[in-house]
Amino acid sequence: MESQSVRASHRRFWLLFIAFIVFRGLSILLLRPGGFVTDTGPDHNFYFEFARWAGGQKFALFDFWMEYPPLMPWLAGLAYRLSLALPPWTYAIFGFNLIFRLSLLPFEAGALILVYAIARRLGDAERALWLAALWTLLFAPFFAFLAWFDGMAVFFLLLALYGLLEERPILAGAAIGLGFVVKIFPVVLAPMGLFILRAPRQRLRYVGSAALVVLAVLLPPLLVSPGYVIAMFQAFFSRSSWETVWALLEGYTSYGAVALLNTHLDASAAGFQAHPATLPWGLISLAFALLYAFIITRRIDWRDRARVMAFALFSLMWFVLYSKGYSPQWAPYIAGMALLSLPPGVGLGYALLMDGFMVAELTLAFQVLRGEPRIVTGVIVLRTVVFCLLTLESLARALPEWRPWPLIRRYALRGALALSLVGGAGLTPLAWNVYTSQRLAAEPLAPFVVTWRAAGESTAPAITVQSHLLERLAPYLGKDNVRWFPHIAGTPWQSAEEWLAELAARHSVAWFVYDESQATAQPGLAEEMAAWFAAHACAGEATRYGALSVTPYFFAGEPVERAAAFESGAHLLTATALPAALAPGTAHCLRLTWTVDTRLPADHAVLLHLQAPDGRVVAQADVWPLPPTSMWAPGESYTSAHVLRLPDDLPPGRYTLLTGLYAIEGGARLSLLAGGDAAELGDLIVETP
Predict the structure, then answer these.
(1) Burial tier of 493 (Cβ tally within 10 Å: 0-12, 13-18, 19+)
(2) DSSP-H helix ranges across 323-404
(3) Among 16, 206, 221, 372, which one is most buried in terms of CB atoms within 10 A?
(4) What is the C-alpha to C-alpha distance for residues 9 and 653, in angstroms, rounded to an integer?
(5) Are the CB atoms for 538 and 571 separated by under 8 Å?
(6) Of 142, 154, 88, which is closest to residue 115 (Cα–Cα)?
(7) Helix (H) and strand (E) counts for the chain?
(8) CATH of span 559-686
């Protein structure tokens, strides 16, 4: 009966495995790790550029040094050479990335099999299937597969762990050796093997197989170009700190920078440091090594697989806490080990935290917020506290006899979750402010936004016929203060005249924003609006921001008859109605309609003056009409549009509005036939709001 249940579990696993492989494989073709945030993955171009050197028969450690051990660079070089058989696609990296990711797919498949196999050794088949399913659903391993190469190292880490659990020294040693020439992480299990494998012959096979594998990989480049192999180790040991509390203590808040690719031909450049080391790393290393030696030599039942798993997780976390640097792609190592080493609910909790920190650190802190130091610092501190709790949790399960451990096992995850939620909530307002500030700084219309905001509680909406301008301005002005004239590919629901008239009934001024780089999309609508503005508003001074223009339009009231006859046959016909009152610092549109009996002999300007009771002119808005007055045809009507701006310090009171005509050359005014040289348009009340 049990064997039937096990076989059924295996069948379900292989169904899961097939779905996993198909999903991972299709994701290579159709998913891009940058998503909508960036154009490509964080290290895609870096891998692509050094892989291109293989096109000229140049390979890592033979012809140049690398920060990475050689297996991944060699695999990338092979992938590039194979990609040369593919006709190029729109993106030059496509062929290389497709083949490189496909070459990593077997390691992804192997990691899933090992998760299932290790879980089977630790419990029943149902639990193993459950953990395998959870592994396939975790974000961090999937994203790392699309963006980096850490799936290779995860595979060898799990393979070494499986070999140790099965007490197969050659398998465990070879896995650690191969893992070392991919990435250092599998080496963290090496000391455990000397305790799990008790027989001297087993230990000899274990150490010997690891050494032989490393030697087999490194010996050829060591014989050909020893300087490049030494440079690889030098780059590893001399690299400065990044994305850890150690880096924060050394005053560094950026990511793990590496030497420029064009320096990798020079072995002496392997000592590159993003910043100088200021901490006593010799003492720190000694302290971590001695404390680890003390802990691993305690009484641990190495035959207890659950304790072995817990100590393996502790060893990994101890290394992560010690490490000078940390990168988001390390999350799958921790997630996988936590899932296997801890009870399913607890392991899943930590694995999901790793998912969250990967996104918070890489995507939010560095990509979206451009490495804003306060956010980076907050994420690093929170993550480090969670790592400390996970380290204690794993040690509490490896050494359960120590008295404080029950409390740790009970509350560590709860504390990690609570801290992450509270810390994340605390950083959210700062992150939002940083994001909006950065996006506004990158917005060409930022000066307009600043001007609009400086007006205080402005009621002047921005209007546009282009939806992308609605999307760009609404976050800063408020969605109710940006009005998009709705239409479908230039076909509106209502006429521009009706829409603008409704807007003018509620507002005295609006800002028309237009992007000439996309002018062909809605030329007719923009022209309709321009015609309406010309007939019903006064245009303020337009401001240009490259292809973008922003023009304030002040809406005029209804025209009122204001007949006044001037010499030379000029006549004022109408003026738009005056408002009941205006406040200091505001502006108002007045449109005056004129006609002539005969052509004027010279060009004249139209004056608009606001006069105080004592006769002083306190504000004016003179314009040169278009067309010029000398070109006015007898019997036709012409409009002059004036934007009268009141001074901010204008005292409240009753003022008189005057208009007239004066020669542009010499300034002589035309006299009124009834006497005087300025026609009164009425009184304007100025009130302090």
Answers:
(1) exposed
(2) 331-341, 344-358, 373-398
(3) 206
(4) 90
(5) no
(6) 154
(7) 22, 16
(8) 2.60.40.2550
Sorted by where each begins, the domain ranges of the chain are: 1-30+42-225, 240-433, 446-555, 559-686
Place of tokens 């690889």: 232
Three-state DSSP at 149 gives coil
Q: For the segment 18-38, what is each residue's pLDDT rounded down to a tens digit? A: 999 999 999 999 998 888 888
Among 18-22, 36-40, 502-506, 679-683, the range with the most confident prediction by mean pLDDT is 18-22
* Residue bearing tokens 């990158």: 442
Report which of 387, 257, 246 is spatially closest to residue 324, judged by C-alpha positions: 246
Q: Which amino acid is at 537?
A: A
Q: Residue 3: what pLDDT?
A: 66
Q: How far is CA 83 from CA 66, 87, 96, 544, 557, in A?
A: 22, 8, 5, 47, 70
Question: Residue 564, SS3?
Answer: strand
Q: Using an 8 Å Cβ cutoff, are 247 and 241 in contact?
A: yes
The string of pLDDT tens digits covering residues 395-433 is: 999 987 776 778 888 899 999 999 999 999 999 999 999
State residue 329 phi and psi, 5-degree precision.
-70, -5
- Report residue 239: phi and psi, to 5°: -60, 140
Least confident segment among 58-62, 421-425, 597-601: 597-601
Cβ(621)–Cβ(639) under 8 Å?
no
Q: What is the pTM of this model?
A: 0.88
